[in-house]
Amino acid sequence: MAYDDPASGAVSERALARLQAEFGGHPDVSLIDLGYQREEGRLTRSPVLRVHVRDRWLAAEPEDRIAFPAEVEGIPVEVTRGEYELE
Prior knowledge:
Layout: H1 8-23, E1 29-39, E2 42-53, H2 55-59, E3 71-72, E4 75-81
């Protein structure tokens, strides 16, 4: 799905809401957001859902980690490190 697709906004928001509803309360997840994919260090116009996980998820054995879907509503899901706390 490309940025200029007229339906992309509604689909992206729906996919984000679904991912947040399913995984947003998990203790290993610190944030879920919507952004753009990167290719060769540059942003594209294709949306991506990003799941920001805490360090303990990264340190866990793969079989002990919660598994995230590869995509939601056709939008790819990426997992990235994100250890955030209130200041």
